[in-house]
Predict the structure.
Amino acid sequence: MYKTKFSSLVVAALFFITGCGGSDNKTEADNSEAPQSMIADEPVDDGQGIGKFKDVTLAAIDEKLAKEGQVVFDAKCSACHKTTAQKVVGPGLAGVTAKRKPAWILNMITNPVEMTQKDPAAKDLLAEHLTQMTFQDVSDEDAKKLLEYLRYNDQEGGEEKEEAKK
Amino acid sequence: MKRLSILTLTGVVTSLFFFGALSSCKPPKKDSGLSADAASKVYVAPGKKDEIYLFTSGGFSGQIGVYGLPSGRMLKQVPVFSQDAETGYGFSEETKPMLMTSHGFTPWDDSHHPQLSRTEGQDDGRWLFINANNTPRIARIDLGVFKTREIIELPNCGGNHASPFTTQNNEYVVGASRFSVPYDKDGDQEIASYKDKFKGTISFIKVDKETGRMGINFQLLVPGVDYDLSRAGKAASHGWVFFSCYNSEKAHTLLEVNASQRDKDFIMAVNWKKAEEYLSQGKGMKWPTNYAHNVYDEATHTATSTMMKEVTVLDVKDLPGVCYFIPCPKSPHGCDVDPTGEYICASGKLAAVIPVYSFSKIQKAIEAKNFDGDFDGVPVIKYEAALDGEVEKPGLGPLHTEFDNEGHGYTSFFVSSEIVKWDVKTKQVLDRVPTYYSIGHLCVPMGDNIKPFGKYVIALNKITKDRYLPTGPELTQSAQLYDITGEKMKLLLDFPTIGEPHYAQACPAEIITKHEVKFYKLADNKHKYAATNEKEAKVVREGNNVHVYMTSIRSHFTPDNIEGVKVGDNVYFHVTNLEQDWDVPHGFAVKGANNSELLILPGETSTLKWVPDRPGVFPMYCTDFCSALHQEMQGYVRVSPAGTNPALKFSTGE
Ligand SMILES: [Cu+2]
């Protein structure tokens, strides 16, 4: 409210000088950007998410890579995610590799802010969890290790594993 | 509403300008629509960024203010010499050492002159230096993070006012004493012995090219007058530094009268390259002393304070060719070097002219020994021999001059409250514009560089009076922005500032933003008590010290339930913010702490010390709104009575 009033005043003032032949300043009222969430044209959803990864093909699970992925996960993800189905800050990640395409997961890890603004599935997740996942300064290489770890976790059956520990 | 009142005020200003008695120049065309034009020139639309950074001294707040221009919007206050409860600076265990001096913990000072680091005579946007006037110190702020990273105390110095000024390539940051005092090693002297025993110093601080790390290379021992302001030579005069001096009467009481007796004081010209030669010939003396050198380590996120025990000094009266005095009318303040380095102009607060000296004439006079005797063993060059010309009848109470890139000087006049534009070559006054009220320093963006940016001049005013809505007896401090692109200077904007804006420096934003740091990488965090993931979170007791290795991420602390603490323990909350994106700080506070909060930036570790004074359960929480679940970011510490033996327990989510 306040802002609208305030800029119309300025615009009015600008009009006034143009009237006096004072200057040919462009009015700047049109160049304030709408917040991202209000942008209308959504891309077609191909389930790959938004970001630099596309059509990622997978080989058999590399356990060594998965182990390295676990180290990264403990450092950068475990404060918000469990590998069971249990929600903490973010959703439990058990079963996520069955639910999402590999490229989508890699994009979510490396580009979460844009994903939760534009990708339909990620938008729904934000609406549910209400905390913005932020990029955790993960290299592409580490993102692939994380994906390997999540695949390994799903193969092992994350949920039962956690149950068994108790 | 605010904007509207600025428009109206500008209208008032315009009419003052048209009808006021102050202006001796041709009035601008009446229909130029000054006020509305001004609005468009300072309007930065929502979501758009300013073109220029302005760094103002916080004056007696001891800090630095950061503003965007042309909007005048305040962006940040950088804590430097004073504790800052908002960020925990000087309250956290990591930053307390930054405020150590040889006098112990010194939580306040008076900061006057921000000075940007430079390369080839141009602002390079890496660091900002600023002086502490009261307990003499110089600070270095890193402009990647906008945080104070180093503070060095200056020994043998009273009132570090003519400070800090950088040489062309940051070879030195230079600071000189305002109050002459007896030197530290035999400081206890009768005040009446001023004329014999009281002396000044000029400190030459070397700056490491890579790290910015400062160290006092040497101090010059100089005559006991008051050194006020300074500029380093550049281009033609690179290798020299110039100081204004007052109180050549050497008065030690009622200076208001007694230091204004002589009709000339001095500009002091110092050849620092020559001083370096003497230093390398071993002419320096090592004096015992005691001063603090405080450095914040980027890797450990922790400052250390080291007491230095010795300083190298050179006595200028024994070392010919280092120092010269040049007479200068009445109590000069500003001492400014034009972009070519050839012209040095001095502003005598009580003088009727602005003398402009020529560097090449000074060199010739030195060669020809065209001296008028000496002052305390330092040769005095004849006024006429050094002078290029005088700006006649410029105004009342000239203070300080900066330059544009077109051969113009802009001088502030405190008494007549105006800015005067003049031609450096011809010494002709070209334009004048009133300031509201009583301008002190002024600032042209890069106005002390070899190539000034120009475009604006900023008036840093001493008196506010009726310019803003009143706020009781204490009013806001104030600055004003003027357009200098045309023949006539035009007032565009009033904007309030924090603390007294003694001086400011400004430069285009991209010079600063190219050094931008968005967060601290957890992988590089070498803090002794960091927990860089939740698995490392723990509580450890060592005698009465309890160390809590705590993490924060939206929106919980780990651990968030702690038991086993006793009354009188020293509890250290070492909080590591696990976020790795920009603009996600977390705060931390605990009930009853005789301390501030912590504000912990992404990837950073900060420590709050708490000594619980009674048994009970104490809530702790995040103070900086961090997510939709911020209000849930909380926990408890149970404190048991002294002398009991409660088990140490800690957890989250159990
Ligand atoms: Cu928080």
In short: The interface with chain A takes residues 1, 3-4, 7, 31-33, 36-37, 39-40, 43, 45-48, 519, 521-522, 532-535, 551, 553-556, 558, 578-581, 584, 627-629, 653 of chain B (CB under 8 Å).
